[in-house]
Amino acid sequence: MGLVQAVKGAVGGVLADQWKDFYTVPAGLPSTAALFAAVPRGTNAGRGSNTSGSSNIISNGSKIVVPEGYGLLLFQDGAITGFVAEPGGYEWRSDDLNSQSLFAGDGLVTPLIKQSWERFKFGGQPGGQQAAFFVSLKELPDNRFGTQSEIYWDDGFLATQVGAVTRGSYTLKIVDPILFVKNFVPASYLQPGQVFDFTDLDNAAASQLFNEVVGSLAPAFSLYTNDPGKGNRITKLQQDSLGFAQSLSAAVEQGYQWKSDRGLAIVKTAIVSIEYDANTRELLKTVQRADALSGARGNSNLQASVAQGIQSAGENGGAAGLVGVGMASGMFGAGNLQQPVAPAAPAAEDPVAKLKKAKEMLDLGLITQDDYDALKAKALGL
Q: Using an 8 Å Cβ cutoff, are 95 and 31 in contact?
């Protein structure tokens, strides 16, 4: 009786697997889904008949529709056998005995007998496994990162170590689907009904990526701010999503080989907030003050500051205020200030030269003897 039941089950499974299927993406997928199995639409509003086929067999002639932004990975007995990156409708064709279908012109009696015998040996189950998985080729959003305490890096522009607490998000892209599946996706997600989602808190593989991104933030900040070709400052991070994403992706690749080993890359970042530690905040204030006091604008600002200081010193009285203004001017490099210069005192005239000049004027008849005597008395202080 057991033999009869096994044969009966094998034949019934073969007949059910003869139907052509229509495979597409499952309904209700989150926008962050990265990898999931193609699902058959065996019934069409209750009018179809393919409801008993094996979940791991795809009949020849079945149609698989690949939507825009997705690739299709084909599996045979656990191994990747094909990949499609172009959207459109495709027809499944396989040399596997289990995929042969009378509806695809593969014959009737001989394939049925062979499949029944093979399944009889496996207790009524097909002796093979076939699957089709969709993999997202889009940017996958809402991958978040954040630090619970300060991270520190050496900043080339500030010429010292700076620290900050930051949080934000990044978009992720699968740049090599085959490498991604072979080297990173756990086997538990290569099953029908499973969805690999980078934002799933229960996805241990995704949690590992989060930890690696957090561990790469300090090197990424250092790469970004110390790039001599960009002259970047840390205050530009929130305005340059692509530039910092490149630095973060480079830091992740250097530390964890995302692209070369896993087929993953960070595309864009959005820093929601960055809070510097107390020492860095004070240093940034000093830099901002120095920026305001540089160039022509700085000269104008400093002249106004000095003028205000002189006015305050005059109101308070005493020379100490003026001395303080002078010291402040020297500290801030006020040597370039345009200040009025007092005219030099005329040098005292030589009395001998003066008498000589008066004698020449007397000889020429330009002055009288009395005029000469008066000039002589004045020159000699008589």
A: no
Q: What share of the chain is helix, strand, coil (3-state, %, to 5)?
A: 45, 20, 35
- Distance separating alpha carbons of residues 43 and 351, to the nearest angstrom: 128
For residue 260 the two structure tokens come to: 């070369």
Please check the confidence at residue 126 and state whether its pLDDT lies above 80: no
- Please tell me the distance from the alpha carbon of residue 65 to that of residue 244, in angstroms, as a whole number: 37
Q: Please provide the DSSP assignment of 93-151 as one string.
A: ----GGG--GGGTS-SHHHHHHHHHHHHHTTTS-S--EEEEEEE-S-EEEEEEE-SS-E
Residue 108 pLDDT greater than 80, yes or no? no
Q: State the Cα–Cα distance between residues 174 and 225, nearest whole angstrom.
A: 27
CA distances from 161 to 151, 152, 155 (A): 10, 7, 6
Contact 360, 321 (CB under 8 A): no
Q: What is the pLDDT of residue 249?
A: 93
Q: How far apart are CA 62 and CA 217, in angstroms?
A: 47
Residue 256: what pLDDT?
Answer: 95
Is a pLDDT exceeding 50 seen at residue 37?
yes
Mean pLDDT of the chain: 74
* Chain centroid to CA 302: 39
- 166, two tokens: 């930051």
Q: Do 105 and 18 meet the contact criterion of CB atoms below 8 Å apart?
A: no
Q: Scanning the structure block, which residue is given the tokens 């530390």? A: 255
pLDDT of residue 23: 83
| CB distance 272 to 168 below 8 Å | yes
